[in-house]
Amino acid sequence: MDYDTILQGKYPAKRHARRVVDYIRSKVPNASGVLYVESRMTKMLEDNDEAEPFRQRRYFYYLTGCPLADSYMIHDFDTEKSTLFIPPVDPESVIWSGLPVSAEEAKQKWDVDEVKYTTDVNATLAHLGSEKPNSTIFAIPNQISEQVTFLEFDHKNYSVLKEAIENCRVVKDEFEIAMIGKANNISGKGHRAVLERVKTAKNEQELEAVFLGHCVASGARNQAYHSIVASGRAAATLHYVHNNAPMSGKLNLLLDAGCEWDCYAADITRVFPIGGKFTTESRAIYDIVLKMQLDCIAALKEGVLWDDVHLLAHKIAIDGLLALGILKGDKDEILASRTSVAFFPHGLGHYLGMDTHDTGGNANYADTDPMFRYLRVRGRLPAGSVITVEPGVYFCSFIIEPFLKDPKHSKFIDAAVLEKYWDVGGVRIEDNIVITKDGSENLTNAIKDPAEIERILAEN
User: Where does the record place the Aminopeptidase P N-terminal domain (predicted)?
Assistant: First the structure.
């Protein structure tokens, strides 16, 4: 896919609005009226005269493609007209921040029919409400500014719009996939830059700086999430946050990092041997995880039950750990006992889009089955959805030791063999996958072949 050519067009906001209206009408037959959404508002830092770092509200962006703060949007069901309201010129702020986007410029930039200033929003709402008897305004609770009024509308629905947008966001169009692909392209090169520095870096934060510097230099100033730069045993902590430990004497570095491109996320994880070559134990675990990932990706297509793919990952992990002698006994009994959860405690992946853990996954964190409790996506995958495939095998003493003390599980774990693997820390390999009718497309080009990783390290 030629991401840059596709992204020369406009973000397809009106197409998204039509999809949302269709969804609402599937829940509220013959629904008529308007959609109303707001951007995030500027908020000042406490005890400071600067604004907090701005992150656009995703519901607003989905229906506008507009990154501006302090803005509003109305979409008319019947005329399919979208009106964007942007802040007017504030002479007091121009000296500090320069001229803002004008209404004429906004009309050219974003996929809307009309652009007005925010001073017109209440008058426009009143006009629409009065000219459409018995109409409904659809809005999201707690995302309506105090000065905005819906007095002229006979009906107000605050229950369905958020649900509609979240469900519509699951299936991406070509433009959205191009945005995720662009974020992947930049992030993959950032992973390569870290790989080339991993042998000489003294501290995890040096490598975080390498990744961040590459992203900013490539035009991606915002990160999809805080990077995980975990060396040695710290890689067994799933969401490690410190990123400041020395790396001397440690086996591997786990890098989980991805940038945003215009609000759309990449989410990539790779593991590199700090010394230049994987140890026997590290390579054995890496090969298991890579097989888990490749086999799970091969199983993907429209309509596949994600729960089954997650189960497949566990079966491959059990086979691999049995072959190494870390697990022992009958593989079916190990699966039934859920002992593999000690080494692979998280879900196989999650939807990806404007949020790293994107909407519509229907997770069930109350599930009593520990193998599925943290699975962020449940059910069948539609074509056009983007999902991460990120299996892992971890040696986290906090998680594994209770299993070693429980006779139900300890009979399946060889503690003496396990002792050789603690320093491996954890291995996770994560790619971003588009589901298609007959298979999938991998948007992630970061290097994961272990021989290629070692070759690049040898050259650097």
Answer: 11-145
